[in-house]
């Protein structure tokens, strides 16, 4: 994940056999940089927590105390997770995440539409970042675009209400005139290899 983007991330996970997974994560606008950092630490806890636990196991085995390392490492892993959970506070519930999974050679209208919406929203956020960097918009206008995409993400999240229809006005507002970024690999988009 590219931590330089204040709004979140757009991650691409290419998998085997032509399966592609796409994830758009949008943080709640208006939070501080410290709150964003805590959200990133909380969301990455399974990875860094597991690395911490494993390193404690190796150190404990090297010191000849594998049982102590197992118990102590597990307690530290759980405590670190609980601490980051508590420090991320209510903001962790406000993060909007949407996924799309595509399979090469197979077409499904709803899946294809979800994928296209994610790409358009990610490009709208990336374009807002580019406009801010180039001085075409103010920080306040940047946050307004971020809010539009954040609100549009509510319409894309079926987990909240399985019968919720997409809100075309929010999506069109967030994606109105989303110019294509200057590069073919827009900043803020992470490519993960399995």
Please characterize this protein's 3D structure.
The chain has 194 residues and is α+β, with helices and mostly antiparallel strands. Helices cover 55% and strands 13% of the residues. The protein has 7 helices and 4 strands. The protein has a 4-stranded mixed sheet, with helices on one face. A hairpin with a 4-residue loop joins strand 1 and strand 2. Helix 6 runs antiparallel to helix 7. The longest helix has 25 residues. The C terminus is likely disordered.
Shape: globular
Low-confidence stretches: 160-194
- Average residue-wise pLDDT: 78
N-end to C-end Cα span: 15 Å
* Range of strand content: 5-15%
Q: How many strands appear in the DSSP assignment?
A: 4
Radius of gyration: 20 Å
How much helical structure, as a percent, in the residues?
Answer: 55-70%
Main beta sheet: strand number and arrangement? 4 strands, mixed
* Biggest β-sheet: strands ordered side by side in the sheet: 3-2-1-4
Task: Spell the H/E element sequence.
Answer: EEHHHHEHHHE
Question: Structural class of the secondary structure composition?
Answer: alpha+beta
Number of helical segments? 7
List the helices and strands and how they pair.
Layout: E1 8-14, E2 19-26, H1 33-43, H2 45-62, H3 66-88, H4 91-94, E3 96-103, H5 109-133, H6 139-156, H7 168-175, E4 189-191
Parallel strand pairs: 1-4
Antiparallel strand pairs: 1-2, 2-3
Helix pairs in contact: 1-3, 2-3, 5-6, 6-7
Key words describing this protein structure:
7 helices, disordered C terminus, single chain, globular, 4-stranded mixed β-sheet, alpha+beta, 194 residues
């Amino acid at each position: 994940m590219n931590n330089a983007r204040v709004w979140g991330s757009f991650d691409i996970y290419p998998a085997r056999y032509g399966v592609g997974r796409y994830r758009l994560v949008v943080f709640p606008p208006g939070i501080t940089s410290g709150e964003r950092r805590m959200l990133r630490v909380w969301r990455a806890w399974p990875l860094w927590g597991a690395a911490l636990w494993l390193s404690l196991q190796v150190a404990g085995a090297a010191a000849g105390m594998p049982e102590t390392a197992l118990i102590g490492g597990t307690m530290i892993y759980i405590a670190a997770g609980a601490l980051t959970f508590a420090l991320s506070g209510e903001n962790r519930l406000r993060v909007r995440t949407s996924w799309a999974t595509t399979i090469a050679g197979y077409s499904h209208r709803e899946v294809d539409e979800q994928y296209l919406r994610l790409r358009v929203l990610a490009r709208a956020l990336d374009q807002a970042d580019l406009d801010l960097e180039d001085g075409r918009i103010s920080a306040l206008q940047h946050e307004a675009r971020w809010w539009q995409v954040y609100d549009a993400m509510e319409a894309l999240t079926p987990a909240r209400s399985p019968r919720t229809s997409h809100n075309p006005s929010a999506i069109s507002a967030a994606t109105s005139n989303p110019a294509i970024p200057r590069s073919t690999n827009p900043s803020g988009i992470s490519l993960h290899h399995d």
